[in-house]
Amino acid sequence: MSAGVGFNRSGVWAIYRFEMARFVRTVWQSIVTPVITTSLYFVVFGSAIGARMSKVGGISYGAFIVPGLIMLSLLTSSISNASFGIYFPKFTGTIYELLSAPISFFEMIIGYVGAAATKSIVLGLIILGTSTAFVPVEVHHPGCMIAFLLLTAVTFSVFGFAIGIWADGFEQLQLIPMLVVTPLTFLGGAFYSIDMLPARWRTVALFNPVVYLVSGFRWSFYDTADVAVGISLGMTVLFLLVLLGVVGWMFKTGYRLKK
Questions:
Q1: 47 in any annotated domain
Q2: N or C: which end of the chain has fewer CB within 10 A?
Q3: b vs e for 65-103, b when ≥16 Cβ sit within 10 Å of the residue's Cβ?
Q4: Is residue 4 domain-resident?
C-alpha cells in the first residue's frame, strides 16, 4: 500500500474491501441469523403480547418496538463486526504488519469502522424491511432516520474497535457486549417508553446512552420521543467524540497493540 499524498485511499480501501469480503463469506451469521431472531421478537412481542396491550403514545405496540429492535441489532452488529475485525490481526500476529504499514491510525479506523458500519446499516435496513411483514411501519422523517442509523452504526463500531484492541482473548471480546451493551439496550427503552417508569427510575434511565439513541430513532418514525431529538443527537455525537479520543489514545500509547 502506498501512502500517497495526504490521505492514503488505497490503504483504507484495502482494509475496507477485506472486511466486506469476510462479511460476504459469513452472510448466514451476519444477516440471516439476526433477521430470524428479530422475526421471533415480532412474533412474540408484536403479535402474542402486543395484541393484548394498549397503544403506546397512540402507536400499536408491535409498531412501537420496531425502532428499538433495529437499534438492538444495530448496536450488537456494529460492536461485533468492528471488535472482531481489529482483534483478529492481533490474534494472528499480523497486527504488526498493519502498524508498520504507511497508514495512519485514523485511516485504519476509517477502514475498519467504515466496513463495520456498512454491514450494520445493511442489516438495519433489512430488518426494517422485514418488520413491514409483521406490523404497519411509518417513517415520518426518513432523512433523520438515515442520519441516526449512520451515526449510531459509526459510534458503536468505534466502540467495538476499542473493545477489540482491549480484549486479550475471545472471552473478553464477548464480555462487554453481553454484560453491558445488551442490558443497557433492553433498559434503554427499546421495548417501552421511559415515561412509563416512576420518576426516580426515569431519572436513572437518562444516564443510559442507549436511551438517547432509541428515543431519537423512534422520533424519526413516529414523531414521539422520550428525549428531545436535539439532545439525543448531541449526546450521540458526544459519545462518538469520547470514543474516538479513547481509540486515539490507544494507538498513541500502543495500549495492547505492542508487546
A1: yes
A2: C
A3: bbbbbbbbbbbbbbbbbbbbbbbebbeeeebeebeebeb
A4: no
Distance (Å, rounded) from C-alpha 33 to C-alpha 223?
31
In b/e form, how buried is each residue of 34-61, taking b as 16+ CB within 10 angstroms?
A: beeebbebbeebbeeebeeeeebeebbb
Instruction: Answer yes or no: pTM beyond 0.70.
Output: yes
Q: Name the grid cell of 165.
A: 484492541
Per the structure block, which three cell numbers stand in for 207? Answer: 444516564
If one counts the domains in the chain, the total is 1
Within a domain: residue 258? no
Dump the DSSP string for 31-93.
IIHHHHHHHHHIIIIIIIIGGGS--BTTB-HHHHTHHHHHHHHHHHHHHHHHHHHHHHHHHHT
259 located within any domain? no
Domain that holds residue 247: 9-253
Give dist(CA 111, CA 7) in Å, integer: 12
Report whether 217 contacts 151 (CB < 8 A): no
